[in-house]
Each structure stands twice: as C-alpha cells, then as structure tokens.
C-alpha cells in the first residue's frame, strides 16, 4: 500500500516541502529509507516505532520503505518524524485512508513516549507550506506561537502522537492556535538607559546620529571611559522593528536554534556581542557541509558590537567587509551555496594602544611607538573606510563623574531617532530602502544634494583627509541623517561639517 504525507526541511533559513512516500507490504518486517537523509533522519524509525508502541499502537508487521522527495536534496534534523509517522499510520490503517492528507503538513520530533518535541526553523517551514497551498499545519506545542504569525493557514499545536491520531480520526479535534497579532516592535527590555551615562555628550550625539541613520560607528578611548557602557545602551534608542523585519529576524534565530520554546516573534532588535576569540566561520557563517548562519546574520536588523576590536583576529575583521557593504553574506560549501541576510549596525570599541592610554591626558602611555603602530595596524584601511562615524571617548573628569543629576533618558533620544527614521523611510520607500545607511550612490545623488558652502567644506575635507570615494559617500549619508534629525529637507554646511568631524579619527590614530 502506498501512502503519502507532507513534512518540511530546512535549507539555510528557508523551508522546503518534503513529500514522504511510504510503501508498506505484508512481508518480512523491515524498514528502509531513501532520499538523502542524514543520521538524525535515519534514526527516525526508532523514534517513530517506539512512539507508536507507547501510544497504544501494535508493533509493525509490515515491510516499510520510505522515500523523501525531492530525493536530491539533503534532509537534516528530526522535524520529519511526525510526517513519517502519519504516512506509516495510514499504511497501517490506524489513520483511515479516507482522511485527505494532501492539504496538511506535519512538523515535529517524536519522543519515545509519543510526545511531540519542538524543532528549529518552524516559521520558515510554515511560510513554505502557505506558499505551496497547504491549509493546515500540525506543529509541536512549543512552536505554535512562532508558527501562528503566518496568516492564511491553520496551525494546530500537537502535544503527542496519540492526540494527532484522535484529531485525524475525528475522536477529539485539536483546537487551532489563534493567530498572533503584531502590535509593533517592543522597546529594548534590558533595563539599560542612557540616563545612567554621565558626561560624554559628544559621544551620545554621535550614537544618536548612528542610530537615526543605521550607520556603523567606532569608539576609541582609554579604559573606563564608558565605551562598552554606551554601546550596550544603543539598543535602547533604536526604533521598533517593522513586521517584515521581525519575521525575517525570527526566521534566522529559529533556523539556528536561538529561538526559545513558546516564543513568538522577536520584537526587540538583536544585540550580538561575540568574544574576540571567535573564528571567521562563526562570524560570517559556514559549516563543513551545509552552510549555517553566523553572528553577522544573527545581528540582522540589529546591532553587532565588537568590543576591543584590534583583539579580533585579522581574518575575522576582514571578513566583515563584504557583509557590511552588501547587507548579505554568501557561503559556498560542497552541499550548496546559500545566502544569508546580514544588514546590521556595526558598533566597535577599542583602546588607542595596548595599554590603553595613548593620547590620554590623565595617564601616561607605557607602549613603545612601534607597538602602538602595530596595534593600530590590526584595523585595516578598507574596514575603517566602511565605518561611517568615528568618535573619540575621552576619560571623564572628577566633576563629570561626581555630578548627581541624571542625563537625558533613552526614551527622549529614541523619540528623535524614530522621527528621523520615519522621515528617511518615507523618502526611500520608492527605492525599497529603510534607512540612510543603506543608500547607494544612486540614492545619494538623488537625495543628498548640497549647496556651494557645504560643497566647499566637503572638497576641503576630501583633499586634506585623502578621502576615498566610499568615504565621500558615507559623509553625505551621515550629513543626510543629521539634517533629518534637525527636521530639515536641505543639507547645509553645518550638517556636512559635523559629518566630516565624525570621520577624522582615522587620521589622528591610523
């Protein structure tokens, strides 16, 4: 008897449909599976058989052959357990043949007890199911909220194999999950606020500009000046995510196993802060066979914070150049070539030298000139050229540290940032862009016209700083953001001058 059910697989962060064909005959009991299953999929029979036994279904007396189509695509993980079980159960006539499975998809891992366990990548799988015309998807209870954000398809949270059988046979229907309603992205929930940061008004201004335009930023200063403290608070002033951004971010985190069981959409922009010992593969993604997403993709639509930037291996920092420029990263391995989104805001912090006090007015540097040069050379010119804003973070004086009054709270800064982002988004909507940092030369020419005075300042900076074409464009992007924060349509000389000042540290230190 030939029976068919449907499950889903995962390739990168994209789901694809898997047709489970089960051919069962009354012969010497046995089991065979084809269709490029990995070790976890091959072991499905042990889980399925034991789960059926512990769900009150007699042991198999059939010879079962399973084909997972398309047969030329690698199947990984345990998400196909439930679909395989349903196909076998219909072959055993536990699920009547009259039950139409053609518009149903089954996703989940089976435990020996018959319970259905959560799996990764459910959101992408459900999106694929909807795109292919499926009407019902049965998912683990722990993945139901995640799957419920997809409209136009019924999601059934399935506690166990026994519950699924009762539903399919009509004995005890499972109530569908209510669809989640997106009410806008949430504010940063980490309890961190710029009101806690004393002094450093110039740095806060630079970070506000960076947040308003989505610009990359580098902070240079001695230890204890507040670089990391302020970087960790950037998420508190970023605008909320749109529904599309939330879905895309959730897909990445779900596919890589970073989404918590029972969690719906990720509504807070990601903040990733990897340790400097990570490899380039962990940073941009990779894997021995099938590529997986790295930190640059986990930070998509959010912040990638690199503390002590020169301590990262050179190949790691250099691997950032292409993702920073293109907003995506392509990984090629023997099993295929996959592209992952990586549109993130890079926030980097570093000391000016190994001891940290080069150029400091409060403490003498103990490094040799050659050591300072070698330390700073760890940051390449091409990488610096891709960082829009470079700001010095000086050590605080006693008077600044001892002040009792609170600084401006993140909520007030966030309000200005959101207002500027809204203006930019409306301007760039026709070009399919969301923020000023994403503008290409085409949009810069269209939206960043400057008057004669501003052009003179820009020309002087270009000549004296040895600015590249990329640096020229980035100054104009930042100037556009400053004008948006000021509520002005035209970019004037003041906006350009401030944008130029935010790119001068590479000449001082590098």
Task: Write structural notes for this entry.
A hairpin with a 2-residue loop joins strand 15 and strand 16. The protein starts with a strand and ends with a helix. Helix content is 37%, strand content 17%. The chain has two domains: 2-168, 2-Layer Sandwich (Ribosomal Protein S5, domain 2); 194-509, Rossmann fold, CATH 3.40.50. The protein has 22 helices and 18 strands.
Largest sheet data:
5 strands, parallel
State which percent range the strand residues make up.
15-25%
Number of helices: 22
Write the CATH architecture name of the largest domain. Answer: 3-Layer(aba) Sandwich
* Alpha carbon gyration radius: 28 Å
Helix content class: 25-40%
Top CATH class of the largest domain: Alpha Beta
What do we call the CATH topology of the largest domain? Rossmann fold
| Overall 3D shape | elongated
Number of spatially distinct domains: 2
Strand ordering within the main sheet: 11-14-17-10-18
For CATH, the homologous superfamily of the largest domain is named as P-loop containing nucleotide triphosphate hydrolases
- Ranges with pLDDT <50 over ≥5 residues? none
Instruction: Compute the number of strand runs.
Output: 18
Through-space gap between termini? 73 Å
Structural class: alpha/beta
Mean pLDDT: 90
């Amino acid at each position: 008897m030939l029976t068919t059910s449907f499950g889903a697989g995962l390739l990168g962060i994209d789901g694809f449909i898997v047709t489970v064909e089960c051919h069962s005959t009354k012969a010497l009991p046995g089991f065979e599976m084809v269709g490029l299953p990995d070790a976890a999929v091959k072991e499905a029979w042990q889980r399925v058989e034991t789960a059926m036994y512990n769900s009150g279904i007699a042991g198999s007396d059939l010879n079962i052959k399973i084909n997972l189509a398309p047969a030329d695509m690698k199947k990984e993980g345990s998400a196909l357990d439930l679909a395989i079980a349903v196909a076998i159960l219909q072959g055993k006539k536990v699920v009547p043949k009259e039950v139409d499975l053609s518009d149903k998809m089954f996703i989940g891992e089976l435990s020996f007890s018959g319970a259905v366990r959560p799996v990764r990548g459910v959101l992408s799988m459900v999106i694929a199911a909807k795109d292919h015309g499926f009407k019902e998807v049965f998912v683990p209870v722990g993945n139901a909220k995640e799957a419920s954000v997809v409209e136009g398809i019924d999601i059934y949270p399935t506690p166990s194999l026994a519950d699924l059988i009762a539903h399919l046979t009509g004995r005890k229907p499972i109530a569908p999950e209510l669809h989640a309603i997106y009410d806008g992205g949430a504010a940063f929930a980490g309890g961190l606020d710029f009101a806690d940061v004393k002094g450093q008004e110039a740095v806060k201004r630079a970070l506000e500009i960076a947040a308003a335009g989505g610009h990359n930023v580098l902070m240079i200063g001695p230890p204890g000046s507040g670089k990391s403290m302020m970087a960790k608070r950037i998420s508190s002033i970023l605008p909320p995510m749109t529904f599309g951004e939330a879905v895309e971010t959730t897909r990445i985190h779900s596919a890589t196993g970073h989404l918590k069981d029972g969690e719906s959409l990720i509504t807070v922009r990601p903040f990733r802060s990897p340790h400097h010992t990570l490899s380039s593969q962990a940073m941009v993604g990779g894997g021995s066979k099938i590529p997986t997403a790295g930190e640059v993709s986990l930070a998509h639509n959010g912040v990638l914070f690199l503390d002590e930037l020169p301590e990262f291996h050179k190949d790691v920092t250099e691997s950032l150049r292409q993702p920073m420029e293109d907003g995506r990263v392509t990984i090629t391995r023997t099993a295929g070539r996959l592209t992952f989104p990586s549109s993130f805001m890079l926030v980097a912090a570093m000391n000016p030298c190994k001891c940290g006090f080069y150029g400091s007015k409060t403490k003498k540097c103990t490094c040799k000139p050659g050591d300072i040069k070698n330390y700073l050379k760890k940051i390449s010119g091409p990488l610096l050229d891709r960082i829009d804003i470079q700001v010095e973070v000086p050590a605080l004086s006693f008077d600044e540290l001892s002040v009792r009054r609170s600084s401006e709270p993140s909520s007030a800064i966030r309000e200005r940032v959101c207002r500027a982002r809204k203006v930019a988004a409306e301007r760039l909507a026709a070009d399919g862009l969301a923020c000023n940092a994403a503008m290409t030369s085409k949009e810069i020419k269209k939206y960043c016209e400057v008057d004669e005075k501003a052009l003179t300042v820009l020309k002087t900076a270009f000549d004296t700083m040895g600015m590249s074409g990329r640096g020229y464009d980035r100054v104009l992007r930042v100037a556009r953001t400053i004008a948006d924060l000021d509520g002005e349509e035209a970019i004037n000389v003041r906006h350009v001058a401030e944008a130029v000042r935010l790119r001068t540290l590479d000449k001082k230190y590098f």
